[in-house]
Fold each of these.
Amino acid sequence: MSHLHSLKRHLVARYGAIIAITVLLLEGLCMFAIRSYYVNTIEQVLSNRVQLTADYYQKYVPGVTPLARAQKLLSSVDKDEVALVEVLDLQGQPVLDSDGFIADYRHTTPEVSAALNGQQHAWVGKSPLTGEKILAVAAPLCRDESRDTVGVLRYSVSLEQTFRVIQRLYIYCLLVGLIVIALVLALCYSLACRILLPIEDLTIAAKRLGAGAHDVRVRQRSQDELGQLAATFNYMSSQLDAAERAKNEFLSSISHELRTPLTSIKGWSETLFSGKLVDKPNQTQLGLEIICEETDRMIGLVEDLLDYSRLQVGHITLSLETVEINDLVTEVYQQLTIRLSERHIGLTLDLQQQLPLVEADDDRLKQVLLILLDNALKFTPPDGLISIRTRFEQDIVITVADTGPGIAPEDLPFIKNKFYKGNSKLPGSGLGLSIAQNIVQLHKGRLEIASPATGGTTVDICLPQSTPWTAGTYNWISKANSTRQNLS
Amino acid sequence: MAKVLVLDDEIRIRGFIVVNLESNGFEVVEAASGEEALRIAHTQPDIQIALLDIMLPGIDGIEVCRELRQSYPAMGIIMLTAKEQEQDKVSGLEAGADDYVVKPFSPNELIARVNALLRRVTLVEQVSSSSEELICDPFVLCVSEYKLYKGEKSIAMTPTELAVMEVLLKRSGKAVSRDELLDAVWGPDYFGDPKIVDVNIRRIRRKIEDDPSRPFYIETVWGHGYRWHGESLA
């Protein structure tokens, strides 16, 4: 499970990192905005005041000495003004401040220099006097008409309080950010678990399946892709189970099929060996015949099995040649008439003349016909009738029909499955139709089985004609030429 | 000459069974289907042993066995089964068969089984002439009628069940091992599955116990065998 846990760690770490970086970036932006907002607001306010006061000075403040004018100016400043208001001379030395002091030093900070050059300017920085963070705005003071700078008006305010507020806001911001990151990490983790739990389920189930457990089922936890995967896994498991069951049924059916001839062979050979039949030549003959026949039966069964497995693996390749279907059918028909005469079953042959040629494997096609005829023989009672017909419609169709009991409707869909024998207890591997179907499909044809309720079974082998043009030589509408032979 | 009914749909298998039985001095009647076997059995009630194939077209061997057992409790029945699965053996025995032979089998083995079963069947018949009764309250084992009475109620028993009951009752209160039962009932040369003892015990329990899942009269002695619950017979 270690790889799963590492996947979980990966998921949490990667998504966590992305979210953390995003949140921290946003936090930074937010903090910057807060700081700018506060400082800018204060700067704005101070700037306005400086502007107002400087204008006022320019227009209205009387007095002769700079000190008297400064006193006059500062007396006009609001008593509740929190900023320190100073009037500086042209050297940057305060003439008077709003607290009424005259300090003995020079301001050299940038705003003062700017004001001395006739520019109003704001500056944020550490005060060289107090070491506090301050915001200072300075504006030049002019006499009304001359516009010459006669001094500097400086508003300064400590930002310590403001920065404390901003700091507190920073902390809130960070806290919220951390909470968001923690929440996201938790969500990531639960998401990882949600993804990984079904995967762990699947891993365990797949291991069990691999170890040979049957019918392994995974709990379908959701309807999403993973749920579908679980459902698909369950489907696969059930299919494997069905395949396993089919295999077991096959083994038991094959072992039964082998056991019956083996019982005869063992029974008869031991009987012959024991010498009980020494003075009974007829029975000795019978026993030996049975042993030979049963051996043949087993050989046939083994050949069926080999054929089937070759077809399954796809090792059978057709040696295609141009085949005259009617010739092939007639040949099989002649082979069979001998076998049939013993059993009082009629066999009719009904050929449509001038069938188009077919690209086919001669031997394999004969095998299919023999399988179908063998089935028909197996199920047709004495005095029944088996008929072989050929005709041409879209395809070339070879029909094998019998007058047996037919196939039960509930068996019909499965009849072509391997080893399927319905309720039949007759000998056979249950492979015949499956082999026939495979061979016909190799010829790109179809095997169609019909069994009407009135009884009897009809099997059509439908084969495509070799090329469309060969049909041209044949007028397929005319069916007058069909011959009928009956040799029952 | 003992009469044996052979039921198998494969004439080739039936053939050598018949040859071997006849050469061992049995009188043989053949049947190719379950229906035919039942018809023959009803017209010839002197059949002592029936050899029944299980896989048959029409009614199967198990069903034939059940019907024969019902009509002829004293008949010895051997199933010929083509399947080795436990379930098939058990279902045959549950239907009342005395023994089974798995295909492919050796004719000699089959003859040995038939002979062993025949001894049991004829033992019952011999005992019946002496009209012996084993009494163990509330049971009376009446060998002559192939019947066991529980109080007033009669219970039909097969020859094998009867033989098993006889061994257990005669050694009432004492443990009897599976091997002892096998030797006493199936004969010392029996070479089948010892499970046949358990199947017969189960069948007997179903017939005689009030609650077959919690047997009272026939106790299981773990790892050993069985014991008849009760005092020793006088």
Amino acid sequence: MLDGIRVLDLTDDKGYLCGRILGDMGADVIKIERPGGDPGRSLGPFYHDIPHEERSLYWFAYNANKRSITLNLESADGRELFRKLAAGADAVIESFSPGFMDGLGLGYNVLSKIKPGIIFTSISPFGQEGPYSQFKYSDIALMAMGGYMYTCGEPDRPPLRIAFPQSPMFAGVEAASGTLMALYHREMTGEGQVVDISLEHSLTGTSSSLVTAWWYLEGVILSRVGQYRAGLGAGIKQRQMWPCRDGWVSFQIYGGAMGAKANKALLQWMDSEGCATDHLKGIDWDNMDMSKLTQDDMDKMEQPIGVFLLRYTKAELEEAALTKDIMLYPVNTMADILNSPQLKARNFWMDVEHPELGASIVYPGEWAKLSDYPMKIRRAPLIGEHNADIYKQELGLSDVELSALKQARVI
Amino acid sequence: MACVFDGIKVLDFGWILVGPQISGYLARHGATIVKVEALNRPDSVRLSAPFKDRMPGQNRSGYFAGLNPNKYGMTLNLKHPKGLEVAKKLVAWADIVTENFAPGVMEGWGLDYEGLKKIKPDIIMIRSSNQGQTGPQAHRRGFGILLASQVGFNAVTGWPDRGPNTSYLGYTDFIAPRFAAAAVSAALIHRKRTGKGQCLDVSQAETALHFLAPVILDYTVNQHREWERAGNASPYSAPHGAYPCQGEDSWCAISVTTDEEWRAFCRAIGNPAWTQRPEFATLIGRKKNEDELNELVGRWTVDHTSREVMMLLQGAGVSAGVVQNTKDLLEDPQLKLRDYVWYLEHDELGQYPHMGPYIKLSRTPAQPRMPAPNLGQHTELVCREFLGMPDEEFTQLLVEGVFD
């Protein structure tokens, strides 16, 4: 779908996913690594727990469908080579500190003269300008600043992030959209531009307008409620995470027509097992106005349900949810996910060859099914794997020049 | 000023969160969005509190407004045969059709991809459902908050000695739209080059799993290893966590990894004696003594505001960030620079913050054009101006209940 579009990818772990998505849709993404390998190759987990630049699962996941060349951008030769590459590129994506590329003489102003219409996508923790623009990244600092953590965790403990870094993920996808939007504009007009992506800003997308609305209209700041969720009415908590016999499930008493149907189904099941209380049996689910419930109402509904769910395993509860149409989902582990019949039926899992490891690895596959473009996955590149293809075949460097550049640590 | 999607027309059946966010990308960047609802079954977010002045009303929901700037709103009765005809005229008008119903709903109206192509061969259709359009569980009902459990986020969120925690709202609801925005932009490029449209089947579960890809690979290659709840710990940093600051429920996140950062951290907090203890000199040592380390750091942070902690540590080259709440986000100077919200005048909400564009473009920035639409606000305008429907025809259809 994006055949013929060449992207020079200068990102680190803050932005790998951007190039991955472009590569998935057919763009020729060239990952430019510093000599010796991109620092992100030090990120675990590792293949067979061997910490090694060519065994990083983080690298594998987010740099599939890219080629790799090595280049020291801070050397004069490196900058010269980059300018030559830019002349043949449609987009450059980078995640250096704001101003770094300009400082090297490789910013948008320079590159757009070399290649008019070029798209220059910059990914940074807070954006290219502003009082925090030079702040140091860490996922937890961004999950904090972006508003995610305030509403996650137990009320009597510190706010929580998710155990695996998410801030670069939001920014990465956002950057792919932004780059493609700019490329579309260029298709229509010939004009390039700068795409400025902020990890913080993209993360604010996780709190959505509901949280803003409670503050703006009611002066209420919604905060973390642990295994509950709030937001129905200020101060009313509903349980969301429920322990069951061998783990946890996610279930919530919903309102509206959809909720009524699901709640009645649950009640019917409870009743057939002799576990439905009179109180629950007496509820008119179709006409229940969730916004008028008190905490006491909620607790009285939830208490017998909690007792009931403890009787069953995750698998039993999921089976019941599927057959009885109850809106309950298990808190799945990876084992559950890999065994999911839905994902298997969708051909979601893809085997990717890693000849150097003598293995093929199961990867999460297509992130969307595009009717005109089935996606494939080619394993992430080795360090400088395509130096010969690019430097010799495309740029016409000789073996002697390549050897000199290698020894001078330009490549 | 020009916008990226100027001239692009979108027929938007999206509802609640995912669909409206997808059309939201297009809306903020210049596309003409016609959001279709049924009068007796509007977008259910319209019925969500909080409401302006605590008076419930379909046009008084802040939650709805924030999600839906720059969209025209019309109502249409798709159970009425003439309503379906109007829908088909809208398909003929549109470049893109978006929906996030459970699979089968569009089929029921003959408006699945095959049906759309008969009307408009190069149509681009975005279908975003929980688990995709195909498969044994495609019709399973659920919301994002449940899906987040299903795809593994909740299993890795929480304290080891407590249970799983959930993200506040449906976490997966915010992932799928971003992938869909990338896919539709690529589809538009493809259409410009080849004249061909496409159907984009975006499963909320499948997109979300990519945010955990290395965790999945760790399972598939390392003897089915499962990640556990880790609180705020990181395997390769210490101190690492959210630390209590002055004031109520006020916290600052701090992350220290390298020796340089550790030394900078110690200097920034005044080199207290405890930082010289040999067990804290190395990363491994700090990880081994992490509980005590966290307590000691907390005793320092608690004497400062979260903002002071952040500014002091960032000034010293250490990563730190205030745990910001929704009020903080509205006041955040970085976010203000990026139009985090557009304050638009809405006839029932007054001046109201509509969520702004996440993507900042230098030459063709997103533009605020309209506040979120009232229910059925633009039915007549869409019919007459976009579809070129003559007055008599519109009035006749109105009388027959086609727009109810």
